[in-house]
Design brief:
The protein is of the alpha+beta class. The protein has five helices and ten strands. The termini are far apart.
């Protein structure tokens, strides 16, 4: 019986520390159910996915880089979330970032948001550039990663929406933002 309990605790802690950011938080005792999900996210259906829609800077080099990232990102949009996955059949956040980085830059990244957080150079949020990694977490540490695109938008794979593009200013993600790293 003790080994079963240890296994349950290990499994629970593994899930909490992984990329799986819960889709619903805030159990409401009066309602007897969970509150509403985090603010809705922008998905491919709601978003014109050209670099123009991200209000790309006038600098042609930056605009070209955003276009190159969008070429990779567009092919992944709508991919469903799958814990431990890293393919277009299903992916978690670090699997997605790992794959699009390899596709765009040729760089191999670990399949772990916590391990990715240890790479590269720390970047202030005000200095984010296309291709920077953005990290999120709570008191358990880093548990989610995405790629910054432009003008406050980033792409990630979430347990509620799969691969999508959303603003960093979304309340749910803004509260969990833990930093950024530049690998390029």
């Amino acid at each position: 019986m003790r080994s079963l309990c240890k296994l349950c605790v290990f499994t629970f802690l593994s899930l909490v520390a992984a990329c799986n950011v819960p889709a619903r938080t805030g159990y409401d005792r009066e309602l007897g159910e969970y509150g509403p999900p985090p603010e809705s996210t922008t998905t491919s259906d709601d978003f014109n996915l050209s670099s123009d829609s991200l209000d790309a800077p006038v600098d042609s080099e930056v605009s070209e880089d955003l276009s190159a990232w969008m070429d990779v990102v567009n092919s992944w949009l709508g991919t469903p979330y799958k814990y431990g996955g890293s393919s277009k059949n299903g992916t978690d956040c670090s699997g997605y970032v790992m794959q699009i980085y390899k596709e765009k830059t040729g760089k191999n990244l670990p399949h772990s948001s916590g391990a990715m957080f240890k790479l590269g150079e720390p970047i202030d949020q005000e200095d984010l550039q296309t291709g920077d990694l953005v990290f999120f977490g709570g008191h358990w540490g880093i548990n989610h990663v995405g790629v910054y695109l432009s003008n406050g938008n980033f792409t990630h794979s979430s347990s509620s929406d799969g691969v999508a593009i959303i603003p960093l200013s979304t309340k749910y993600w803004k509260e969990r933002y833990r930093g950024a790293r530049r690998l390029l």
